[in-house]
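Task: sequence design from structure.
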């Protein structure tokens, strides 16, 4: 009887600690479930798990809060709270340590050095002042298409700089230029002039307009190469998520009359493509992904319906439909715990590029989630930057050999 009484909360503080411990344990357990089973991006707890995966400092602060609750529970002899909080803290520590261990091992296997401190605490200074809202075209109905220009650092007047054309993500229905400023700044620091492109989206845009706008931006950049002192033979496309898809699509389908530019501009030779977790096969992506409600909703808005309704549209908007032996070299990054884009989207791309003898590289990052580079200091982003740097060093020159492995 006395033993039962010892476990029963007494007084306001003990009851509060017991209640808080139960709530914290419940929330952490659900978040842990969605970290271990990345899926259902449309659910609030999955979004919390995504945030905790991308920004592990959230888990660290949560662990500190639990430690405080544990100290109070020990002081007040709140045994139920202690029993709940101890395994919860151990679970949190595992959630913090396991991805770090996996990513550090992977980086070591790829001869990349990564640092732990920026993984938790990182702030990049944005020192470049871009030219904002430069108009690169106007549609038939009078809509101005705009981009931002990020000039390369330490640029000599007599030296033409290579170009990165940045295509933002957002599931083809949201997002805007300027949302990957850390990448733009980093590219500037590497000696690249960056053009951060805006494109039309539903409901104003039709299903061909997004890639058409990207091609229009490319054509405008080519036409204005002298103005910006850039090398027209070294134009590289980069995109994240939906932007990665559009970057590949624009590069691989260049010159295809079925997907023309939105404005009257010339075709542009693309030097290389940096694909950050972008899907490559739209039909399969619609059918098979970890977040079906979210993915199918945005694809219905973007394309107008399902693959069964518009099979030809899905095929035309799939980058793998256009891969030939003259496709530009491509580097792809995708996390194995991506809760939106499945690993199969990267492997089918890899297979098609290999079949056609296109120079390419695929990095499947262990226990890494969608949009990992939203944390510019994360271990996975550090890894990606080192591999991108090596990739660009190899392919920024005026000539590359088709079919050579990276």
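Answer:
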């Amino acid at each position: 009887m006395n033993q039962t009484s010892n476990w029963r909360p007494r007084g306001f503080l003990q009851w509060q600690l017991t209640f808080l411990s139960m709530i914290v344990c419940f929330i952490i357990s659900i978040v842990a479930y969605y970290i271990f089973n990345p899926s259902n991006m449309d659910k609030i707890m999955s979004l919390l798990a995504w945030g905790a995966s991308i920004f592990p400092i959230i888990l660290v602060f949560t662990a500190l809060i639990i430690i405080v609750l544990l100290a109070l529970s020990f002081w007040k002899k709140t045994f139920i709270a202690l029993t709940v909080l101890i395994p919860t803290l151990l679970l949190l520590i595992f959630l913090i340590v396991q991805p770090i261990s996996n990513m550090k091992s992977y980086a070591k296997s790829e001869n990349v050095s990564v640092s732990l401190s920026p993984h938790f605490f990182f702030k990049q200074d944005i020192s470049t002042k871009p030219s904002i809202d430069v108009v690169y075209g106007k549609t038939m109905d009078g809509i101005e298409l705009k981009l931002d220009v990020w000039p390369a650092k330490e640029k000599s007047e007599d030296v033409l700089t290579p170009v990165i054309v940045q295509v933002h993500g957002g599931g083809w229905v949201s997002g805007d230029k300027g949302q990957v400023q850390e990448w733009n700044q980093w590219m500037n620091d590497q000696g690249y002039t960056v053009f951060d492109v805006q494109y039309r989206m539903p409901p104003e845009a039709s299903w061909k307009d997004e890639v058409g706008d990207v091609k229009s931006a490319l054509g405008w950049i080519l036409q204005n190469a002298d103005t910006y002192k850039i090398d027209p033979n070294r134009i590289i496309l980069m995109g994240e998520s939906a932007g990665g898809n559009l970057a590949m699509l624009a590069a691989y389908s260049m010159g295809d009359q079925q997907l023309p530019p939105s404005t009257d501009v010339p075709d542009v030779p693309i030097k290389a493509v940096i694909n950050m977790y972008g899907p490559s096969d739209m039909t399969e992506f619609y059918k098979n992904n970890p977040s079906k409600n979210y993915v199918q909703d945005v694809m219905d808005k973007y394309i107008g319906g399902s693959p069964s309704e518009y099979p030809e549209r899905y095929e035309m908007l799939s980058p793998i439909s256009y891969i030939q032996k003259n496709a530009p070299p491509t580097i792809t990054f995708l996390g194995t715990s991506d809760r939106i884009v499945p690993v199969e989207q990267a492997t089918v791309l890899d297979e098609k590029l290999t079949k056609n003898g296109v120079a390419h590289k695929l990095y499947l990052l262990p226990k890494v989630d969608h949009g990992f580079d939203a944390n510019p200091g994360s271990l996975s982003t550090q890894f990606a930057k080192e591999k991108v740097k090596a990739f660009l060093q190899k392919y920024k020159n005026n000539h590359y050999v088709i079919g050579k492995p990276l």
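The beta strands are 131-138, 144-150, 161-167, 193-197, 230-240, 272-276, 330-335, 360-365.
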